[in-house]
Amino acid sequence: MSFAPRAASAVAIARPRPPVAPVRSAVLPLRSIYRNVPGGHWESPDGTRFVSGNDDKTVRVWDAATGQQVGDPLTGRTAPMESVAFSPDGTCIASGSFDKTVRLWDAATGHQLGDPLTSHVAGAVSVAYSPDGTRIVSGGWDKTLRLWPVYRDAVSALCAKLAANMSRQQWRDWVSTDIAYIEQCPGLPIPTD
Fold this sequence. Notes:
Helices cover 10% and strands 31% of the residues. By secondary structure, it is mainly beta. It has 2 domains: 2-150, YVTN repeat-like/Quinoprotein amine dehydrogenase (Methylamine Dehydrogenase, Chain H, 7 Propeller), CATH 2.130.10; 152-193, no CATH class. A hairpin with a 3-residue loop joins strand 8 and strand 9 (101-106). It is elongated. The chain starts with a strand and ends in a 19-residue tail after the last helix.
């Protein structure tokens, strides 16, 4: 699965699963650890790491130069992994699984980010980030594609749902008369009092 070059649409193409792990597997010890890596792999944007989704229900990050696992496996899945992808900036990992969910992980800490994304009624078997990192597309055995927004932080998520900032009067009423007004969502209008 991938996004079209201008990220306006996503395309899913059925193709046979490659018979081996990542291309670099010839020089890395992955074949001895995982004979079949169903979730495939995805290389980090800087090429220093790659991530694998595995039958043991884990996501693992690997050092591309040494082939050694980086940190502990990312756990929390209830079914084998089917697909993994690094975000374009390399800070997050998305994973899709037969447990019907898409999960996001902090690539540096290995912590799961938020709750699982649920909407597929059968396994989420393919995931990809848009080139700008603002969306994830997932494909499932339920024959659907789901488009998920990705937010940098909670404020960005909240601002995406609002039509306007607080007015200055609302700020005084709800926040404080002692704290100077702060535009909460840059780019959204500020209502007049």
